[in-house]
Design brief:
CATH topology of chain A: Rossmann fold
Distance between the termini of chain A: 66 Å
Structural class of chain A: alpha/beta
CATH topology of the domain at 228-427 in chain C: Chloramphenicol Acetyltransferase
Largest sheet of chain C: 6 strands, mixed
Radius of gyration of chain A: 20 Å
Chains: A alpha/beta (332), B alpha/beta (327), C alpha+beta (439)
Strand order of the largest sheet of chain C: 10-19-18-17-13-16
Oligomer: heterotrimer
Number of strands of chain A: 9
Helix content of chain A: 40-55%
Radius of gyration of chain C: 28 Å
Strand content of chain C: 15-25%
CATH architecture of the domain at 228-427 in chain C: 2-Layer Sandwich
Chain lengths: 332, 327, 439
């Protein structure tokens, strides 16, 4: 470990763990809601929790910008999104904050937290993020933009174009790739001829680093370094966090069709919630009772949120005509 | 002969075309081991091997571009764009490049490629898994665009598309994949591209439609007949080139036209059909050419009440039929 | 011109026939209706009549061949004057035969089949995804724009010009009084029939009123589409006559109008319809629709023509209630104010032709119903009554009732059973008959 590297203070470790546990319970609940016919679609972040909380922890949510994609459950919670708000997305209810439930869950833009998830088309957010960072640079702001994406997105032309531009203009941008080795069913070997996404950064003139995405400290360190560099005006970085996608691609997928039983089983050894729990216990940062309490509070929080949102109404049909253009657009 | 769903008929066509012609290769995301997210290519990589069933990286523009290159060099690629909503990154390779190969080389090169694109809504697909994309495609000289609605037509048109020496886009409405079941012959056969078909003969008006809306139109026409209105239903089947003669023959005989479409109406396939009818059936019209489609908002909202309000339905079509009949 | 002779369709479920002896040879001249060939089907042996006058030119099938109905069996050269009315003029409204695939190839919708948003099988709990049920007529709630001025559609203008029809003389049956394609074609038909050369200068040519035109259209439709069959029986209404004689004065005092036989026969018929639902039906698009409601219409002569006000749910009302309702309806008719509601929804029609002295009637079914019943005049007749071994002659009040019925839906046996129910109902009326609250 780099002696100058930032260390996560112990009390922050427990808080990050709290967020991860809440994310895990909410994640499981949403999957269940899908099987009940209430949530049409969900993509799980199980396996990604550590990478997301640690990344956000290294940034400054009061000033920085976040462009996310459909798997950023935990990051959203870490940034201050409420479980009710997320459930409104999954259950398509009236007061859904990011798109009025016009979009898939978690898509749109949050009114309170500075995160964008404009569309469901893969990798479109990378050039968009470059644009956001460009504006900050031109303004002389010291805000940093973090753009999240998966290994699948790294194959899109948009990714190349975004990284190229960011490198040329030394944009205050952090490319954060959560590599879970599967783009739906296509394994990493069919997505790239190299071993890691991070290695491509050299082609764009900025550093790329591969970290263990289940290691909160490692991700925190790498992200801190990248954010510091960007904030200082020294240009972008690419961080690749290796994680496991513990569940299938979405609730519409069945990963037993293309992953062997052994491959699926070995993932439990890289469960970040368990790894974090073991680490906290080992370092005596949390007692068994405190752990139990933390878990039960998270469960209750999820139950409360589910009950609240389940009882709410769907958006009215008249509302769908609003915001097409600046004026309300109605056909005849 | 057997009863098949649309997805089974699509699978049947691809399998028999691949067995028949070794130059047919498949490429797309998840088409290999996964068998496709709709299971369209289930079992194919086992039967035909990885060199003919290629799992591509997540990169639509290059899926089309690579297919084009292979097509120009002796293969018959059958590419899949996983959802029509993701076609847009590939538009340049399709509309700007593939559509212009024959023309731009004065016939020296042709691109015998087929692109299958699941499209359409009513599946809680939100803004990015529900779109209809045919308007831009049907506008493009140099390609053909087909939209089968029945299992029989799905197998026949896909086979025709694969055997065609120019680019063909096959739009398959994802809702019909499991919803529609019908008779499909087990032997090879083709359905001609460019030919519409009267699915229900009638005398008082012609309902022109395609895709999932064809089935809704048939349901509405059935109810209308119980209420004394005899409507003919014409399935376009091909969106480019449109079967002008079939449209004209039907409407000049019935005297009234109702065009039903899931895509938003402005500057769309239904606009073109209306123009054809206006130009060639003017003196045979006993009522205004009527178009039924969703409101002009981005297709389509995720929440259930708004999605239902957006989509045309058998009730809405029935209402339109009765209004037109009353005139 | 060459004309193809097809094997005609005969018999409901018969699709083919075996060719028997040819009665004509190529070169033979034939008159319309001359038999030209014998054919054998499993229902009937018959001679195929020549569809036109002319000369047989070709025989296309041989004796012993099995031939599908509708297929061409011979060719002839038409005698010239006939080419007009023999040529198969395609009805403007008939679709091109053989153009549509069979229903099995169009496919059916699988109930409960779902696709998730991105390919799975999500079953939405918030909406039922089974295909929506359609309610019947009257969906359009928003008012339809009325034609702003008296304009004619391009089709109407073209047809009028083609057939030399003055559009200003037509009454439009379309929305807002628009002259429709149908209106023009109807006018064309009337003109061609009238201009048959049968008229002389002394003849009075009347312009039928719109109602009469509608009646005419309806009659043509009924007569041409519905295969009519008839059945009749005698009913001993002596008990009914006596009952009515006993009740009529009191009824008239209480209600202010005369008690006729009509409410009683109507109620009895309604009750019989309940027992024989097939009589209360309609042939629609190849299906038999059994109407749940029993709404009996009564044919009434008016200044405008034949009107048929309807008693809705006739089987649920008592005889006296029916009498009052009928009186109300007849009043409307007399004042020329029959409402649309009272004219619609009829499932069966009763025609009291007996009031004018008729003893037998073969009415035309009120399209699209399945049957119509006439009640003929009540006459005192000598009838034979059997008591054990002893026959005797008595004088009884007898009334014939005659049923015209749709033979696609109703067979002779069913018709007779229905008639028996009506007969039994009417013959069971005696002093104890309960006709409800007199008022």
């Amino acid at each position: 470990m780099n002696s100058g590297a930032k260390q996560l203070p112990p009390e922050r470790l427990v808080e990050l763990y709290r967020t991860m546990v809440l994310s895990r319970y909410l994640d499981e609940r949403v999957w269940l809601l899908n099987r009940q016919g209430k949530a049409a679609i969900a993509a799980s972040a199980q396996g990604h929790e550590a990478a997301q909380v640690a990344c956000v922890e290294a940034t400054e949510p009061s000033k920085d910008h976040y462009l996310i994609y459909y798997r950023q459950f935990t990051a959203m919670l870490a940034l201050g999104t409420e479980p009710e708000e997320m459930l409104r997305g999954f259950l398509a209810k009236e007061r859904e904050p990011m798109s009025g439930a016009r979009q898939f869950p978690l898509h749109g833009a949050h009114p309170r937290v500075d995160l964008f998830n404009f569309s469901n088309v893969i990798a479109t957010q990378l050039p968009q993020a470059a644009g956001v960072a460009l504006a900050d640079k031109l303004r002389g702001s010291d805000a940093v933009t973090i753009v999240f994406f998966g290994d699948g997105a790294s194959s899109q032309g948009d990714t190349h174009e975004a990284m190229n531009f960011a490198g040329i203009h030394r944009l205050p941008l952090v490319f954060f790739c959560e590599n879970n080795r599967y783009a739906i069913s296509v394994p990493i070997s069919k997505q790239m001829a190299v071993d890691s996404v991070a290695g491509r950064a050299v082609g764009y003139g900025f550093p790329g680093v591969l970290v263990d995405g289940t290691d909160v400290q490692a991700v925190y360190e790498a992200t801190s370094a990248a954010v510091e560099k960007a904030r200082a005006g020294d240009g972008p970085s690419l961080i690749e966090a290796s994680v496991e996608r513990m569940l299938p691609h979405t609730t519409d997928d069945d990963h037993t069709r293309y992953r062997s039983a052994a491959d699926i089983d070995q993932m439990s050894g890289r469960d970040p919630v368990k790894i974090m729990s073991d680490l906290l216990r080992k370092r005596d940062l949390i007692s068994e009772l405190e752990n139990e309490t933390l878990h039960s509070e998270a469960k209750q929080r999820v139950n409360l949120a589910t009950d609240t949102v389940d009882a709410e109404a769907y958006p009215a049909t008249e509302a769908m005509f609003d915001q097409v253009t600046g004026e309300s657009w109605r056909d005849s | 002969m057997s009863e098949q769903t649309v997805i089974e008929a699509v699978r049947d066509s691809m399998r028999s075309e691949m067995q028949r012609d070794a130059s047919v290769i498949l490429l797309g995301q998840d088409v290999g081991k996964r068998g496709g997210v709709f299971l369209a290519t289930d079992g194919f990589v086992e039967e035909f091997g990885e060199h003919r069933v290629i799992d591509t990286p997540l990169a639509e523009s290059s899926i089309c571009g690579i297919a084009l290159g292979a097509a120009v060099n002796g293969m018959r690629p059958l590419a899949e764009i996983q959802f029509a909503d993701f076609l847009w990154p590939a538009i340049n390779q399709l509309v700007g490049e593939a559509a212009r190969v024959r023309y731009g080389t004065n016939g020296a090169k042709t691109a015998p490629m087929t692109i299958r694109v699941p499209y359409g809504g009513g599946v809680r697909g939100g803004l990015y898994h529900s779109q209809s994309v045919e308007a831009l495609l049907a506008h493009t000289p140099g390609i053909s665009v087909v939209a089968p609605a029945t299992p029989y037509d799905a197998k026949g048109l896909l086979s025709s598309a694969i055997r065609t020496d120019d680019p063909v886009v096959v739009l398959e409405h994802k809702r019909t994949y499991r919803l529609v079941k019908g008779e499909v012959p087990s032997e090879d056969y083709t359905v001609p591209i460019g030919k519409a078909e009267v699915k229900r003969p009638g005398s008082e008006m012609t309902i022109v439609s395609y895709g999932l809306m064809l089935h809704y139109a048939l349901q509405a026409a059935e109810t209308a007949s119980l209420n004394g209105v005899d409507a003919e239903v014409l399935d376009l089947r091909t969106l480019r080139p449109l079967d002008e003669d079939a449209i004209v023959e039907s409407v000049s005989r019935t005297g009234k036209a109702l065009i039903v479409q899931e895509d938003t109406p402005a500057v769309s396939v239904s606009s073109e059909v209306a123009a054809i009818i206006g130009a060639r059936c003017f003196f045979d019209l006993d009522g205004p050419i009527t178009r039924l489609g969703p409101p002009e908002i981005p297709a389509m909202p995720f929440s259930p009440l708004q999605e239902a309000a957006f989509m045309p339905s058998p009730e809405k079509i029935f209402s339109a039929i009765m209004k037109l009949a009353e005139l | 011109m060459t004309f193809q002779i097809e094997l005609p369709h005969v018999g409901e479920s018969v699709t083919e026939a075996v060719v028997g002896k040819w009665l004509k040879s190529p070169g033979d001249s034939v008159e319309k209706y001359d038999p030209i060939v014998e054919v054998v089907t499993d229902k009937v042996n018959m001679d195929v009549p020549s569809p036109a006058s002319g000369t047989i030119t070709k025989i296309l099938v041989a004796e012993g061949d099995t031939v599908l109905m509708g297929s061409v069996i011979a060719e002839m050269e038409l005698a010239s004057e006939q080419s007009e009315d023999v040529s198969e003029s395609t009805d403007q409204a008939a679709p091109l035969i053989g153009q549509s695939p069979p229903a099995s190839r169009i496919g059916t919708l699988v109930q409960g089949a779902n696709v998730g948003p991105t390919g799975g099988e999500f079953l939405d709990a918030s909406l039922t995804f089974s295909e929506p049920k359609l309610s019947s007529a009257g969906q359009a709630k928003t008012p339809v724009p009325r034609p702003r001025k008296k304009g004619f559609s391009p089709l109407v203008a073209r047809l009028a010009a083609q057939h030399d029809i003055d559009l200003n003389t037509l009454v439009g049956t379309g929305l807002g009084g628009r002259v429709t394609k149908k209106d023009v074609l109807t006018a064309v038909k009337l003109v061609t029939e009238g201009a048959d050369g049968n008229m002389s200068v002394d003849d009075d040519v009347l312009d039928p009123t719109p109602i009469r035109r509608m009646i005419a259209e309806r009659m043509i439709k009924s007569a041409s589409e519905i295969p009519h069959a008839w059945s009749a029986i005698e009913v001993d209404v002596s008990g009914l006559v006596q009952w009515r004689a006993e009740k009529k004065m009191r009824f008239e005092e209480v209600n202010g109008f005369r008690l006729t036989y009509l409410p009683i026969t109507l109620s009895t018929v309604a009750g019989a319809l309940r027992l024989h639902p097939r009589i209360n039906s309609s042939w629609v698009d190849g299906k038999i629709v059994l109407k749940r409601a029993i709404n009996v219409g009564v044919a009434v002569a008016s200044d405008d023509g034949l009107l048929v006000p309807v008693i809705h749910d006739a089987a649920d009302a008592s005889v006296f209630e029916v009498a009052r309702k009928l009186n109300g309806l007849l009043g409307q008719v007399r004042r020329g104010k029959m409402t649309l509601e009272n004219a619609q929804g009829g499932t069966f029609t009763l025609n009291n032709t007996g009031t004018l002295g008729s003893i037998w009637g073969g009415a035309i079914i009120n399209y699209p119903q399945a049957a119509i019943l006439t009640t003929e005049t009540i006459t005192k007749r000598p009838v034979v009554v059997v008591d054990g071994d002893v026959d005797s002659i008595v004088i009884r009040s007898m009334m014939n009732i005659c049923l015209s019925f749709d033979h696609r839906i109703i067979d002779g046996a069913e018709a007779s059973e229905f008639m028996q129910s009506v007969k039994t109902g009417l013959e069971s009326i005696d002093g104890s008959f309960d006709a409800g609250d007199m008022g």
